[in-house]
Amino acid sequence: MMRAPLRLLLVDDEALARSRLRDLLGDIAEEVSTTVVAEAHDGHSALALIQTHPCDIALVDIRMPGMDGVEFARHLARWPAAPAVIFVTAYDQYAVSAFELAALDYLVKPVRAARLAVALQKAARHLDEAERLEKSALATRRHLSCFERGRVLLVPVTEILYLKAEQKYVTARTVEREYLLEESLVKLEAEFVQRFLRVHRNCLIASEAVVGLERASTDGEKDDSWQVMLSGISERLPVSRRQWPLVKDLLKNGG
Description:
By secondary structure, this protein is α/β, with parallel strands linked by helices.
């Protein structure tokens, strides 16, 4: 699927320089789809424009009257969901400052069309990756839902010590109590793969909650199987032979 055109803000105190950038953007339109949402002649006006003209990237000159490009970028760095910055300047001595401010690129005038295309393509990849990570974070829930006595209880995932499949339900255990969830253990394992480790075909444990292992016993005699010990509860959970190497590695590597 093709991405939407990159929304650009042009910030330069020279109108001719902004016009030159527009011409270059037209030259590379087949390589990089863009749209200029606004133009500003200094940092102050650029900050005001961003609030009414959301953009993906700001192409910013450095030497400008009033608020220059470096100060503008410093202000922008404190904003949530701020656009990326690409500096476009006639002076190369500001490169170190630019990259300290996490600018995506630094173009020296006169800018060549091919060089501008490379910078914008890099910015597009950066934006796509940021969007992917944001969606990934949103896709992982922070709470699981438990329906109990006509109420919906939200169980913080960070408080769950283990998840155990029992008939058609999954039991979520915290230090305080158990909750019954109408969810699939397989789906929970896939969603929270970074947090929970399978120790048995019907049980997942929170990796961070593991405090040790002990041998299981039958009629007071130790056998060859192991049980995992979790922080805050006395219950021990059996570890299957198949999952034993993973659990042992978890303890060996400190969780």
